[in-house]
Design a protein that fits this description.
Number of strands: 21
Shape: globular
Strand order of the largest sheet: 1-20-19-15-14-9-8
Oligomer: single chain
Radius of gyration: 22 Å
Number of helices: 19
Strand content: 15-25%
């Protein structure tokens, strides 16, 4: 694609061109991935090393107790990996009603009863075993060094760290692990994490077995039991990551691929299918008309996602029904060009963190995401190994008659997930591995950046730097302060309840993008990294 490289946006970042690349949200993680590539590893080795490093460097957003997903091109075909964890066998609606009262509509947002089986470590192992080149223990080495030597806490990480302390400081293990001076670290302060280094050494030496059946598993189960939780050794030992076929939707000659439910990636596919009914290329890229159409398409997508998406065995409709051409065309007809609306779910039945990406000169491309969900996850940290446990259980419902009944909690069931890696192809060949972080911002970020690249010819870095909006609920949206005032006014005139906010990855996501320029050994790749976070794209 002939991209534009003349950017009208405040950021002065330029894309990085190389034959081997790693783009992450933290510079030390990008360096960890690049080190694997320079040592003869491939893109999978780079992604796993970067993911392990990020678990140490960005503890607010992810950790050793996270979940993960991946889409990768191995040089010949596309593969999807779902490494999200399942509910403990003791979890039922009655379990939570007994503990938290019959009025509890969901599991708690924090604490040990928000923790499902952590899956990220299993993703690292599965990717390495099937596609990696280097010894698995070597992939853990950069993260171990960072955890032992310590790192200087950057600005964005510190801000989110400090914001989480008031709510989480009383959770078991949190202060011991993340408040070494009785407070959050300050910007530029050295933070060491020896417990995580201990865990990473055991994970590397046993290829993950220590985490699910060995000493780390025993420590996690004992920790959960001491807090009154139900996560046990049998739950951990039963965990298996699952190779899945990505779901897809064509858009203007390209194909966007997402992980299938129980994740929210299908929201981006639905919204693109709706937008294909409109001539976005004929509208000003930053004008109110183009932004209004995208916002309304996202609203329609989320209305269906929040009503229907769950673990596939619990869904009332199939992804194919939700992506049916005629159904999406009928949803598109609901959009009014001059009026914002609050849409309900349709009836498709016929008679959502850290993200990183890596690519190498052999053609392998990896789109990888892992998350503890909300900042620091459950807040519970097993102290001996520094396992900061996610809170994905909060995505379940405990109300059999509620609107979210498809996600009713059950033993061994996976909860609704927000984290979604993405991949773009054209005519069956790889084009771009990419992702955007930030809860329900993720499919919205996928949509906005793709429209800018495909419909308007903006290069990935420019699309990354452009101002974004974020749909919240009803008619409420947030917009970045850099969005043109005339566009904000135009959205308000259409009925959008807009709140202008300063740039923050929590509000508007942050993304990493690698676009294949042609033959990787000749033309290489173009990589972009979001300025909303301390990201870095590095290559050679």
């Amino acid at each position: 694609m002939p991209f534009s490289y003349t950017s009208p946006y405040p950021s002065t970042r330029l894309p990085v061109f190389a034959r081997n690349l790693c783009s992450t949200s933290h510079p030390l993680a990008a360096q960890a991935g690049l080190r694997m590539l320079q040592n003869g590893g491939n893109a999978v080795d780079a992604a796993v090393a970067a993911a392990a490093a990020t678990a140490v460097c960005e503890p607010v957003s992810n950790g050793l107790g996270s979940d993960a997903f991946c889409i990768l091109w191995d040089g010949q075909a596309l593969h999807g990996l779902n490494a999200s964890g399942r509910a403990p066998q003791a979890w039922t609606p009655e379990y939570f009603h007994r503990r938290y009262g019959t009025g509890a509509a969901t599991p708690p947002r924090r604490g040990i009863d928000s923790v499902t089986v952590p899956g990220a470590v299993s993703a690292w192992v599965a990717l390495s075993e099937r596609f990696g080149k280097l010894p698995f223990a070597d992939l853990m080495a950069p993260a171990i060094e960072i955890a032992e030597r310590g790192y200087l806490v950057p600005v964005v990480v510190q801000q989110k760290w400090a914001a989480a302390v008031p709510e989480l400081q009383s959770q078991p293990g949190f202060a011991q692990s993340f408040m070494p001076w009785g407070r959050a670290p300050q910007v530029g302060e050295l933070f060491r994490f020896p417990a995580a280094a201990r865990a990473l050494r055991a994970i590397g030496a046993t290829r993950g077995e220590a985490f699910y059946t060995g000493e780390i598993a025993q420590a996690m189960a004992a920790f959960a039991q001491a807090q009154g939780g139900s996560l046990g050794l049998a739950d951990l030992a039963a965990h298996r990551p699952e190779w899945v076929a990505p779901i897809a939707r064509n858009y203007r000659g390209y194909t966007l691929h997402e992980i299938p439910p129980s994740g929210q990636g299908i929201a981006a596919l639905i919204a693109l299918g709706i937008l294909e009914q409109f001539d976005l290329a004929g509208l000003p890229v930053d004008g109110p008309e183009a932004q209004h159409l995208q916002i309304e398409a996202v609203k329609l997508a989320f209305a269906d996602v929040y009503r229907y998406v769950a673990e596939p065995s619990s869904m009332e409709v199939t992804p194919a029904q939700m992506l049916d051409d005629s159904y999406l065309a009928s949803r598109a007809r609901l959009i009014r060009m001059n009026q914002a609306q609050d849409f309900g779910a349709g009836n498709p039945v016929r008679g959502g963190t850290i993200y990183l990406t890596a690519a190498d000169e052999s053609g392998m491309m990896v789109s990888f995401i892992q998350s503890n969900y909300q900042g620091f996850g459950s807040g519970c940290v097993e102290p001996n190994f520094g396992i900061s446990l996610q809170n994905r259980g909060f995505g379940f419902s405990t109300d059999p008659a509620g609107a979210n009944r498809a996600n009713l909690v059950a033993p061994g069931k996976r909860p609704f997930h927000t984290i979604i890696p993405a991949f773009l192809t054209r005519d069956g060949q790889p084009v771009m591995s990419f992702g955007v972080m930030g809860a329900n911002m993720q499919p919205q970020g996928h949509l906005q950046t793709l429209v800018r690249m495909i419909d308007h010819g903006q290069n990935p870095q420019m699309a990354c730097d452009a101002p974004r909006w974020r749909f919240n609920a009803g008619l409420s949206i947030n917009v970045e302060a850099s969005m043109p005032a005339a566009t904000v006014q135009g959205l308000q005139a259409r009925g959008h309840r807009t709140e202008v906010l300063q740039d923050s990855y929590q509000d508007f996501g942050a993304g990493q993008f690698i676009w294949r320029m042609g033959d990787p050994q000749v033309h290489g790749y173009l990589a972009a990294s979001d300025a909303r976070r301390d990201g870095l794209a590095a290559g050679f």
